[in-house]
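Bumping with the actual sequence this time:
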Amino acid sequence: MKRKISLLLCLMLTLLCFTGCAKTDEPVTYDEALVGQTVEFLIEYCNSVDDVTLEQWKSYSEFAQNYQIMSTGLQVTPESLTSAVESWRAGIDECGAYVSHGDFTYEADADGVDVSMPVKYENKNAEVVFSFDEKSFLESVTVNAENTMSEILTKSGLNTLLGMGTVFAVLIFISLIISLFGFIPKIEAAFRKPKEVSVSEAPAAAPVPAEAEEETDDLELIAVISAAIASYEGTGTDGFVVRSIRRRPSNKWKA
């Protein structure tokens, strides 16, 4: 049983390898007349569509858009037709009104076919490319305007100035941010610094009571009197104690 499964797997891998090898990069086959007819219709249709018609077309339902496309018999989808009209109108905005176009050039590859042609507009010439897939359904429309050397240089200069201006603006912004780093320690110090008390807010010293001053004076007076008595008696101050001092009401001597 395991041997049969292994044989089946080998056979499947072999088939896959042959399938991959069989695929080539040969260009797709297409109906040149049908593709050319589609391009001619698209040029005429896109050139006749204005803003009102385009908005009206976008407002249609998908069923209504597919029904109108089916009635024309062209191999386009609603999305590709809308994209083609918008690309064509963008080319007119850049190059001016459409005047005429030249012969078609067909280039086919494995993914589809491109139809390119020179187009003359009112202000400048351009190359328009209509791209179709492998089933000849329209994919996109590209308008490549032929800019003069002065226009190319102008655009290049503007792009250079824009790039350099952006770079310098970013560098200036970064330098400003770096310069602000020096203020960070000062801000931190300001938040950490204790609040200073002004002289006017400092509490006033408590006044010394008058009784305390008088008591101090009495002690000094007692010490002086004790020393005088001890000197007079020829003894020390340990033999007596001055307990109180009374002041006379008047110090005036009587005659």
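The tokens above came from a reply further down the thread. The two ends are 158 Å apart (CA to CA).
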